[in-house]
Structure formats: structure tokens, C-alpha cells
Amino acid sequence: METTSSGARSDDPAAPYAAGVGGPPWILGHRGAPREAPENTLGALRRALELGLDGVEYDLQRLSSGEAVLLHDDTLDRTTDHVGPVSELTLPQLAGVDAGGWFAKAYRGEPLPLLEEALALPVRAGGAAPLHMIEVKDSALVPDVARMVAEFQEGAGEAGGRESIGVRLASFDRAACVEARDRGLAAMLLAVVATEEDRRFVRDERLAAYSVGPGGWTTEAEPGLFAREWPCERWAWSLDDPDELLWAARAPLFGWNTNEPHRALAARALAKLAPGCERWPVRVPSLLVEPDPRAAGRHGAWSGGWRLVAGIANPFPFPVDAAAEVLIRGGAFDVDGLPARLKLGPREERELEFALDGGSWSPGEDPRLLVRFAWTRGAGRSTAGELVLDTTLERRREVALSRDARRLSMLVERPVAGGSRGGGTVVIRRRGRDLLAKVEDPGGLSDVRVLVRLGAEVRRGAVGLRIALPDDFDARADGLAFGAGFQGRDRDGRVVLRRFCGGVPGGIEHGSPGRLYPVAD
Prior knowledge:
The protein has 521 residues and is of the alpha/beta class. It has three domains: 28-74 and 112-273, Phosphatidylinositol (PI) phosphodiesterase (TIM Barrel); 282-396, Immunoglobulin-like, CATH 2.60.40; 398-518, Immunoglobulin-like (Sandwich), CATH 2.60.40. It is built from eight helices and 31 strands. The strands form six sheets. Strands 3-4-6-7-8-9-10-11 form an eight-stranded parallel β-barrel, surrounded by four helices. Strands 1, 2, 15, 17, 19 and 20 form a six-stranded antiparallel sheet that branches. Strands 22, 26, 27, 29, 30 and 31 form a six-stranded mixed sheet that branches. Strand 7 (166-171), helix 5 (174-182) and strand 8 form a beta-alpha-beta unit. The protein starts with a strand and ends with a strand. The model is unreliable at 1-19 (pLDDT under 50).
């Protein structure tokens, strides 16, 4: 449940959407509905379908006893009450793992489901079977997945009246995709960025689908690649950015998965209700966070005070009433100037000023600006309706990358008696086409490992790390998603995370990444 700036509370603050606006393109819940239920659990998968999504995406790992279990990481540490590699767990031991307590008390005791339990998800509203995008982390699972899917489809046919589910088996491993194809599955090759080499591979190997990460279709590394002939379904994974969602709905892609189900459904509705709209109608600036860790205020180190000007545009050729408010997902914020109501003429754009003060100790969920557009029956619209559009008020940091060393001070992510002390430092610099990162001061931790996010990927190294920059990095006026930090052990042997900004080690619970910009040397 979220809190709005008006003080109201709502289980579904971004609903309702314009009625009757469905796919294609198809929208799947990334690991279910991970903002509303613990990821890769039956609770999260069911919630995604309850919200009106067309299906679900989930990850498979392999137990030591051979069974396929839903889990993204190769260890149990992040999303369960156990630690250690999942590959060392047997099926009887799985029964003792709590995969929901970390998320919320209401989900305490939620188990890690097996593949057959996910395949048996109930039909969606209207009786349609959900789509399943299954990412295989261990290629050894492909034969078992093919067998279980075939058995499930056969059982559904024998039961009569039940629609067969649609399954895409996805992997970054080309060999796994080819084997899946040979075993009768619709295989999907995954990549971070679309390439001509991949296009030829899916064509030559007759794969059913190809999917890339955020920005993976629109990068300028290979201009015009999306417009070329693709002999397969084109998908995207983890699409959350409003402009990317609108682009995906208008392109159109065959489908995508998302961590933002409300926003994704709204983007699909917007593309169909206002086909001439090319730009997301709700726009806000980023909330830049002071890089000095000693500047932590009463709300914590990941805080600030901002006076903002939002742009609100009516995407329709008829007048609408617009109601704007801020929704708080995490942290503590004071909002001044909202909620507010506007009357907008056909395609009229207005500016809306408001102030936001607050934050949190650690990077986490950012606030959202939500605008509810409502209209009455009249010229150009046969019925009354409304559409809710939102965008994230991202707290982030910006870094300029050059050949000179740049010291990044890690956040102090918790109150410290006697005042704040430094959390350590990481030094970054550019060398040719590469970014170099090294832990300079481990902040009292031992066994440190550096973490760097560049674009959609998070890379891990020992004390230092070298990462190739994108070929078009110097031409990117809007920079590149970036984050840096390190993990290590404190004096009690506990694993501790230190970071410069959000976006590391990855996952929606770790906040928005910063931006890395090129500097002409």
C-alpha cells in the first residue's frame, strides 16, 4: 500500500485505466509483480495476472536433486531467509526456505515454487491462459522444462476446455536456445543490446523470439537495426522507463516484461487512445543528490530539498481534467504545492511547480508523480473515461568520466552514533575505450569486491575492474546509467554493501542508477 501527497491511501493508486484496452503488444510481469509481492513466488505471479497483465516472466535455477525452482540469483541470500548456493539445496530442504518474509510480514512463509506450480497458474480474466516467459539460468534444465511443458499442455488438452498456455523459453546461452528449439519449445535469445550478429543468428537458427534490455532496441550503436527485417518476435525485458514503454507500444514490439505493471498498461492504452502521442505526457527533472556524505540531513544520506517544475501535457484532441499528486514508495518526504488540479485544453501543455524535501538513508524506491486525466463524453470521444500516467522522481548522482582519477565517496547508509563517518571510496578513471574502477578505501571492511553498473549490466570484480565503454559513449548527450560500490565483510563477518548511488547491485529495491557522462580530454 502506498501513501499519496493528499494523505489518502490506496491499494491500487494508478487504477483505473481506460476500459477495453488490451494487447497486443503483450505485457508480462518481470518476476511477477515484484513491487507488490516477493519476486519469483506464486504470490507475485498471481498478483501480476490480477493487475491485468497478459502473463509472467520468471527465472529457473536447478536444485542439487534436479528439480527446477523459481529463483533469479544463484544463491539464496538476497530473497530468502537462507544463504548459500541454490544448487546445493535438495527438494526436502526447499520446504524450509522462506522466500517472502524479507519482503513483508504478510508474505512470511511464502515458499520458492517449482516450475510445475508456475505452469499451473489460473487463467486470466476472460478465460485466457497466461503467457509464460521462462528464463533458464542453468542450460541443463532445458530437457526437463521441455518435458514438463509438454506434459502440462497434454494434460490441459485431456481436461478439455482449457486453453494451452504460451511458453517462451529464454536464455542468454545460444546453445540452450538451440536445444530448446530442437525440443519443440519456442526459444527466445536474450541480449543486452540488439546486434546484427544476433539478428543473423536467430534467422539462421530459426529461433522464435529475441529480447533485449532497456535501451537495447534504440541504441545508436547500430542505427536502423530495429527497422530491418526480423524473422522472429521482437521483445524487450525489464522495460520501466515511460518513454521506452510508449515507444515499445507504438513500435510495436511483440511484447515486453516490466517491473511497472500499472505504467506499462497505461503506456499501451495511451498508444491506442492517442496514436499521435510520441512523448510521455508527464515529465519531471531528476533529483540530484549532494555527493558529500557528511551532508546527510534529518532524512538520511540519500536526501535533499528540491523545487521542481513538472511538464503536464494533454495527449488528447479534446479537453481533460488533470489531477496531480505525489506517491511515496519509500523514505520520508514533505510535499508542498500538491495535490493540484488543472483543466487542459486539447493538446495543451502546462507547467506545474511543487517542492519536495526528504529522502532516506539508503537508495531505494523513489517517489512518483501521478497525473489522472479524466474526460467526459463529447466531440471526439463517445464515452467518458480516464487514464492514469505516472513517472518516477528519480534521486540520482551524476559523474563525469575522464583520464583523471575521480574519487567517489560511498554513502553512509545508516545513522552512526557521534556523527557520520566515511563509508569508503572508489576511484574511477578512463583509459582509452575502458572504464577502470578500484576500491581505494574499503571503509573498514575486508574481502572487498568492487561493483560497477554500466548501462543495464552490473559487473563484479576483485579490488579493481576494467569495463569496456559502449562504442557510442562519447556521443551520448544523456550519458549512461551508472553505479559504483563494493561489498565486503565487517568485523563480525557479516556481508556489508557500500555504494556511491542507487542501481547497485541491481534490482528495483536498490533505487535509480546515476548517470555517467563523457568528458573531452
